[in-house]
Write a structure and sequence with these properties.
With 65 residues, the protein is α+β, with helices and mostly antiparallel strands. Helices cover 58% and strands 17% of the residues. The protein has one domain: Arc Repressor Mutant, subunit A.
Length: 65
């Protein structure tokens, strides 16, 4: 499930087509997919950060290139 949430986050960011998104936008992406638990949001973001795909700055999330 962890990789699935991470995929949904990355796919949602890709569809928004921005390099920087807020955590609130990511929360909305997951809500549209039926995931309302903040735990799933944190686990997905933590996984993406640990594999060096995302970076955080306050409430913003940056996609590394």
């Amino acid at each position: 499930m962890l990789a699935g949430n991470s995929y949904l986050i990355l796919d949602g960011i890709r569809k928004i087509n921005k390099d920087k998104v807020s955590i609130y936008e990511i929360s909305n992406i997951l809500k549209k997919k039926g995931i309302t638990s903040s735990r799933q949001l944190i686990l997905g973001l933590t996984f993406l950060f640990s594999v060096d795909i995302l970076d955080f700055e306050e409430a913003n999330i940056w996609i590394k290139k």
